[in-house]
Amino acid sequence: MASRSRALLAAAGACAVAGSFFSGSDFVSSLIIWVALNVLMTASFRFVLLMGELNFAMAGFVGIGAYAAGIATTLYDLPLALALLLGAAAAGLISLVVGFITLRAKGPYFMLISFAFTEVLRLIYTRIDLIGGNSGMVGIFPPAYLARYYPTLVVLLVLLFLFILYRVERSDFGKILVAIRNNDQLVQTVGINVHLTKVWCLGVASFVAGVCGALLAHGNNVISPGDFSFLLAVYTLAYLKVGGEAHILGAVAGAIVLTLLAQYALGFGAYEHIFYGAAIVISVILLPQGLFGLGQRLALARRRPDSRD
Amino acid sequence: MDIYVQLLINSLQISAVYVLFSLGLTLIFGVMRIVNFAHGEFFALAALLLAVAVPWLVGIGAPLPVAFALAFLGALGAVLVLGKLLYEFAFRRFQRDMIGSFVLSVGLALLLQGVFIEMFTGAARKLPTLIEGTVRILGGAITVQRLILCLIALLVAVAMCWAIVSTRLGKALRAVAEDHEAAMLQGVPYRRIARIGFLIGTLLAAVAGALLAPVVVISPVIGSSYLIKGFIAVVIGGLGSIPGAIIGSILIAVIESVGGYYFDPSLATIAMFVIVMLVLLIRPTGLMGNG
C-alpha cells in the first residue's frame, strides 16, 4: 500500500478517536461504540473466511466474551482491564477446544456446526439463573472515572485489533490460510499441519470476538441471550459482503456504512429484515467485490489516463 | 405402552413433512451445490397463501373442500413462479459457488421474511378444520385430518424417491449430483437439469408448507424453524444424499416428539444440535455423504 494512503488511514483513525473523545450525547457515544464493534466483529468474521470457512460461531464467541466479562465485573468486581482480558481469553480458549474438535468438518458442514454452536450457547444462557436466564445480566458498567472516555477506549482498542489482524493476515501465517482456502491438500503435502493452522486461525478470530463481546457488555450495560443469536453473525456477513471481502478495509467500510444506514432506516419502522436482506442481495448480485472493489475500480479508472501519456 | 405408540405416531406425522422439506433441500444441493437458506421461505409462502386464500374463497361462496383444492394449487403455482424468478435472476449465477450462493440465500431469506411480515402482518393464522374426527391406531390417537395429510406427504415422498431412482430425469439428476462434469460428458444437459432440479426442490417445499398449513398455526416466520431442522436433517444424512435426507428427517422427528414429551422443547432442540455435532465428528460429511 502506498505511503500516501497509509497516511490517509492514520488520519482517518485519528479522526475517529478524536470524534469519539468529543462525542456529546449518550446517543452519539453509544452509536460510536456500536459502529466500532461492528467493524471489529466483521474483521473477525472475515479472518476465518480467509481460510474459506463461514464462521457463524463468531456470534457465540462474542456472547462468551460478553458473559465472561459481565460475570467478572458484576459478580466479582474485577477491574475493567481484567474483565476485558477474561472475556477475550475465555472466548479464545474455548474456541481452541471447539475448533480442534469441529474443524475436521469443512464447507457447509463446518458452517452448520458453527451455527449449531451459537444456538446451543444461546439456549444454555437462558437456562442458567446465575447469569439472569432469559432476561440476561444488568448493571455491567465501566468504572465511573472511565465512563466519559469509554467510547474513545473502544475506538482505540478496535483500531489496535484491526491493525493486529491486518499484520497477521500479511504474515506467513495469513498466506497459509489463503492457501488452505485455495487447496488444503496441497498445503498438507508441503508439510504444514492444516488442521492445527485452522484451529489457530479460529482461535485468533475468536479472541478478537471475545474482546468485542466484553466491550459490548460494558458499552450496553445490559446483555441478554437474544443479543447473541446467529443473526448477529448474519448481519456481520452482510457488512462484509457490502464492503467487499478482498481487503480488511472492505470489512471496515461495509460495517460503518451499513450500521449508519440501518440507524437511519430504522426511523421508518420495523424494516430491519428487509433492509439487511436487500443490502446482501443487491451487493452480491450487482457488486460482487463490494464497496472496496468499486473504490478500487474507480481509482484504477482515474489513474489509467495518466499512465498512457 | 399407549404412550410409546402415541410418540411413534407423533414422530411419523412430523417426519412426513420433514422428509418432503429436506428432500427438496438435498436435491437443490445435489444438482447445484447450493446451500439454500431461502428454502424455508418457499415453505412459508405456500402456508401463508393457503391461510389467506381459503377464508377468502369460502367468503365468496366456495364450499370448503373446493376452496382448499383451489388454494392448494394456487399456492403451489405462486411458489413455483417465485422459485423460477429467484433461479433466473439470482441462483443461476451462483451454481457451485458455495459461499457466494449461501450468502445470497441468507439475504433472500431475510428479505422474503421481511416482505412476508409486511404483506401478511405478524399475526398468527389458523385454518378451519377440513375433516372432523379422530381415529385410534393401536391405542394411539390421531385426527383424521392429520392422518390424511401424512398419507399424502408420504405418497409424495415415495413418488419422488421412485422418480429419482427409476426415471430418466431422476437418473440425470443423480448423475449431475454425483459428478456434473462426467454427466455433461455423457450428454446430460446440465443447465436444464439444474433448473428442473431447483424447481422440483422448490415445489417439494411448497407441498410441505401447503400440507402442514391446515394443522399448525401459521405465521410469516414459520419458515426459519423448519429450515433449521430440515438443514440439520440433511446434514446428518449427508448433503446431496436422498436416503440420508430421509434418515435424518426421521431422526429429527423422533428427537423432537420424544424429547418434547419427556423434557421440554428447548432441551429437544439442544439435543438436536448436539447430535448433529456428534455425527459430524464421527463422519465429517454426514452419514451417507461422500464429500
Write the topology of this structure.
The complex is a heterodimer of chains A (309) and B (291).
Chain A: H1 3-21, H2 26-49, H3 57-74, H4 80-102, H5 108-127, H6 144-147, H7 150-170, H8 172-182, H9 184-189, H10 194-220, H11 230-243, H12 248-266, H13 272-286, H14 290-308
Helix pairs in contact in A: 1-7, 2-7, 2-10, 2-11, 2-12, 3-4, 3-5, 3-10, 3-11, 4-10, 7-10, 8-10, 11-12, 11-13, 11-14, 12-13, 12-14
Chain B: H1 2-32, H2 39-59, H3 64-89, H4 98-120, E1 134-137, E2 140-143, H5 144-166, H6 168-178, H7 180-185, H8 190-212, H9 222-237, H10 242-262, H11 265-282
Helix pairs in contact in B: 1-5, 1-6, 1-8, 1-9, 1-10, 2-3, 2-4, 2-8, 2-9, 3-8, 5-6, 5-8, 6-8, 9-10, 9-11, 10-11
Q: What shape does the CA trace of chain B take?
A: globular
What ranges of chain A have pLDDT less than 50 throughout 5 or more consecutive residues?
A: none
Count of β-strands of chain B: 2
Regions of chain B with pLDDT < 50 over 5+ consecutive residues?
none
Count of individual helical segments of chain A: 14
Number of helices of chain B: 11
SS strand fraction of chain A:
under 5%
What is the string of helix and strand elements of chain B?
HHHHEEHHHHHHH
Largest protein-protein interface: A-B, 41 and 41 residues
Largest sheet of chain B: 2 strands, antiparallel
Structural class of chain A: mainly alpha
Radius of gyration of chain A: 20 Å
Q: Provide mean pLDDT of chain A, rounded.
A: 87
Overall geometric form of chain A: globular
Terminal CA distance of chain A reads: 24 Å
- Computed structural class of chain B: mainly alpha
Considering the chains and any ligands shown, give keywords for the structure.
heterodimer; A: 309 residues; mainly alpha; 14 helices; 78% helix; globular; B: 291 residues; ABC transporter involved in vitamin B12 uptake, BtuC; two-stranded antiparallel sheet
